[in-house]
Design a protein that fits this description.
Blueprint: H1 3-15, H2 18-25, H3 29-43, E1 48-49, E2 56-57, H4 59-87, E3 92-97, H5 99-110, E4 119-124, E5 140-143, E6 151-160, E7 162-164, E8 176-178, H6 179-182, E9 186-190, H7 195-207, E10 212-217, H8 220-228, E11 233-236, E12 247-251, E13 254-255, E14 257-265, H9 271-289
Helix pairs in contact: 1-2, 1-3, 1-4
Length: about 300
């Protein structure tokens, strides 16, 4: 079945006669009539009642009309998608990132995009699996680890590691705390696969301090929820929740921060669209978190 046969069929349906349909389709009437008969032969259906000198849709023909319209619409969409693939323009980009990055960085950034931008969708992944998501349908991956050498990309932002003391804690009015002082508190920490935890452990090792873990969780929001419940001081890198007050954490070399990186396939058909989008994401982080967020 050829798409032009469907177009001729619908032209007759819409214009009422083969003469007007042929004029609209810019084809000779005898040719259009032959193509209609060929379509009926391929479908093994009588789409029109050919008696009485005027074409009338049969019952099968009436039921085939929406099917033909749907097929042509899908074909047009496929052609548009192919055109976009060929030019590097895309209507949708999927970003793979950990849940905290999605909630605190990607989702607010999406809210700043407009109708002229590619629609951004997200794919939630564990921090260690971000770049593997590029082989599972994601177009861009955001991770606290630099992208492998075979990928394009680079640094996006530097976000502070924050301590969230429980309500009523003496640190509620403070802006900063040293890691040695923080280590004296019961800590609510993320599990080892999180970049925030690895950075904290490295900073504690460099400072020569030991700490007591009150609880470990793989979910940053749970760490803050437990802090809000008075169970200890949460150490995470996400935005404040539950009315908690963020306190920046200083190591021996200054503020502890976690870097965010973006990576994508260097041969991605939409690399020319992805690269400026990632640059906009980086600028958004600086606008939102201040100059210290610049990579």
């Amino acid at each position: 079945m050829e798409l032009r046969h469907l177009r001729y069929f619908l032209a007759v349906v819409d214009h009422g006669t083969t003469a007007r349909a042929a004029e609209a389709a810019l084809v000779a009437q005898p040719s259009l009539s032959r193509q209609l008969r060929r379509l009926e032969a391929e479908l093994k259906l009588a789409l029109f009642d050919h008696g009485g000198g005027r074409l009338r849709l049969t019952s099968a023909g009436r039921q085939f009309v929406p099917i033909a319209r749907d097929l042509l619409a899908r074909a047009a969409a496929a052609q548009e998608a192919a055109r976009a693939l060929g030019t590097g323009q895309v209507s949708r980009i999927t970003i793979a990132a950990p849940v905290t990055t999605i909630a605190d960085v990607i989702a607010p950034f999406i809210a700043t995009t407009g109708g002229h931008d590619a629609m951004i969708t997200v794919q939630e992944v564990l921090p260690a699996d971000a770049y593997d998501a590029l082989w599972r349908g994601a177009d861009v991956a955001i991770s606290s680890a630099p992208p492998p050498l075979h990928l394009a990309g680079g640094a996006v932002a530097r976000l502070p590691v924050l301590a969230y003391p429980p309500p009523g804690h003496p640190w509620e009015e403070r802006a900063r705390v040293g890691i040695a002082e923080l280590a004296e508190q019961p800590l609510l920490l993320l599990t080892a696969e999180h970049g925030t935890r690895r950075l904290f452990d490295h900073a504690a090792l460099r400072a020569g301090v030991r700490y007591a873990t009150a609880f470990e969780t793989s979910i940053p929001q749970i760490a803050q929820a437990l802090a809000a419940a008075g169970r200890g001081v949460a150490v995470v890198s996400d935005d404040p929740r539950y009315g908690l007050h963020p306190v920046s954490v200083d190591g021996t070399d200054g503020p502890i921060s976690i870097s965010l990186f973006a990576g994508w396939s260097a041969s991605h058909y939409a690399a020319a669209t992805i690269a400026p989008l990632v640059e906009r994401l980086s600028s958004y982080c600086v606008d939102r978190y201040g100059a210290q967020a610049a990579p």
